Amino acid sequence: MRTRSFALVMIAAMALGACTRADGGPSEDKPVADAGPAAELRLGFFPNVTHAAALVGIDQEKGFVAKELGATKLSTQAFNAGPSAIEALLSGSLDATFVGPNPTINAFTKTKGEAVRLIAGAASGGAQLVVKPEITSVEQLRGRTIATPQLGGTQDVALRAWLAEHKLKVDTTGGNDVKVLTTDNPQTFDAFRSGQLDGGWLPEPWASRLVLEAGAKVLVDERQLWPEGKFPTTVLIVRTEFAKKHPQTVKALLSGHVAAVRWLNAEPAAAKKVVNTGLAKHAGKPLADSVLDRAFSQIEFSFDPLAGRFPKLSKDAVTAGVTKQEIDLKGLVDVTALNEALKAAGVATVDASGLDKK
Questions:
Q1: Neighbours of 182 (CB within 10 A)
Q2: Each residue of 43-89: pLDDT tens digit?
Q3: Model's pTM, two decimal places?
Q4: CB 3.0-4.6 Å disulfide test: which of 212, 232, 246, 282 passes with 306?
Q5: Neighbour tally for 334: CB within 10 Å
Q6: Is position 2 within any domain?
Q7: Matching InterPro entries, A to Z (predicted)?
Q8: Which stretch of DSSP H or E encloses residue 12?
């Protein structure tokens, strides 16, 4: 009987250890041996123009990432918004993903700074609060319904923090405050056009689609809220354990990413076609040229993760009520491999703003 009890305890302990590794708990601190290139890299992204670097990087014809990976198989998965991509990453079903900064902070917080590392930037800008034309002021948002892609996502936090700064509460009881509805971007477009929504804080191309195809107007361009008009919209993160186990694969991914972003900026006309092909494949239909042109004009594609903005983003998450308190973000950023790739390409390196050391 004593032997059986001991066995049950050991099984439970092993199960707990497995859960800890899956959710990025304490086991991430343990040294992980370099296992060489991975057999497969599972990469997440969103079918949005703010993820143009990802769409260009994974494009089969251009093959920027696949060429650098060599024998490592590239598998990709599309997501609507950050929280679902983070869930996949922390569960171990993804190795790396393009994602927004706030879900990145949430993952870092949830796992006590262990499970994820921010390894590159991808896009700045490209998010706006677009509303019905009759809404011309913040105060007129009272009693209105505004959409964001997903609870706790980057645009969701931006909207909630902005409302809080303007002394507007998020309606949870049917009162006269602002109701925030989290819904997939295609559903937001349809709901706005049918009059069920009053607006949305949305990434590109959805802000442009609402403006050009559904008659919305811009109430807030998020660039107006940040110094020099720059804020991270899309970054590239990796599971810490994967990065430790397969550093060569991470370096290859970043080399491909650098090549993709450089080409995206050097050949915007050709890049738009590649991005539109990717959107047609992963989102169901291509964009009108006017929408694509407007969306591109709102975004700066860059390797720089703008790490210095992350403390403010963490504060915004608290203001928005998404997290309870700010945390020390030191250790979140690791741009060592990115800077190696940038040096090899003859491009200026980027700064971790002190968030690379614990």
A1: 16
A2: 999 999 999 999 999 999 999 999 999 999 999 999 988 889 999 99
A3: 0.87
A4: 232
A5: 21
A6: no
A7: ABC_SsuA_sub-bd, NrtA/CpmA_ABC-bd_dom
A8: helix 2-22
